[in-house]
Amino acid sequence: QWPLVESGGGSVQAGGSLRLSCAASGFTLDHSAIGWVRQAPGKEREQISCISSSGGFTNYADSVKGRFTISRDNAKNLVYLQMNSLKPEDTAVYYCAAQLDYCTGFITDYTSWGRGTQVTVYE
Q1: Which of 20, 34, 50, 107 could cysteine-pair with 81, CB 3.0–4.6 Å?
Q2: CA distance 13 to 115
Q3: Residues with Cβ < 8 Å from 57, sequence gap 6 or more?
Q4: Tell me, what's the pLDDT at 1?
Q5: Residue 21 three-state SS
Q6: pLDDT value at position 85?
Q7: Backbone φ/ψ region at 15: left (φ over 0), alpha (ψ -120 to 50), beta
Q8: CA–CA separation, 123 vs 121, rounded Å?
């Protein structure tokens, strides 16, 4: 019983693409800012992107800027992360997480989390 559920992970060759989805269990996402956070083996969690509740604000970590795109469809109660030009260093467990309305930039401000989905990029 996870508040959020990620899907779309998998194993891809470097240069390939994946699209991750985040869905809510038992609530709607229209009042939540949604972030994507990843954790690579042996490393701390890193916020890679966030989108405000309305979709009017987005941000990206420098490591993914220009390659990843966050979007949302509140009518479908889904948030997406389109990942292009994937690199081996993108290999990580990817989590979506929610906080009220706006992206604060602090991982500790998220109040709801998914269990994560594995993304593996091989050379």
Answers
A1: 20
A2: 24
A3: 51, 102, 103
A4: 63
A5: strand
A6: 98
A7: left
A8: 7
Strands 4-7 and 58-60: unpaired
**114 contacts: CB under 8 Å, gap ≥ 6:** 2, 3, 4, 5, 6, 22, 95, 96, 97
Contact 96, 112 (CB under 8 A): no
Which residues, including other chains, have CB under 8 Å from residue 1's CB and lie 6 or more apart?
A: 25
Q: Can you name the residues that pair with 113 across neighbouring β-strands? A: 97
Contact 47, 35 (CB under 8 A): yes
List average pLDDT for each run of 10 residues in the chain, which is 123 residues long: 91 98 91 97 96 97 98 95 98 97 95 96 97
Q: Residue 30 is encoded by which pair of tokens?
A: 């229209």
The pLDDT value recorded for residue 44 is 96
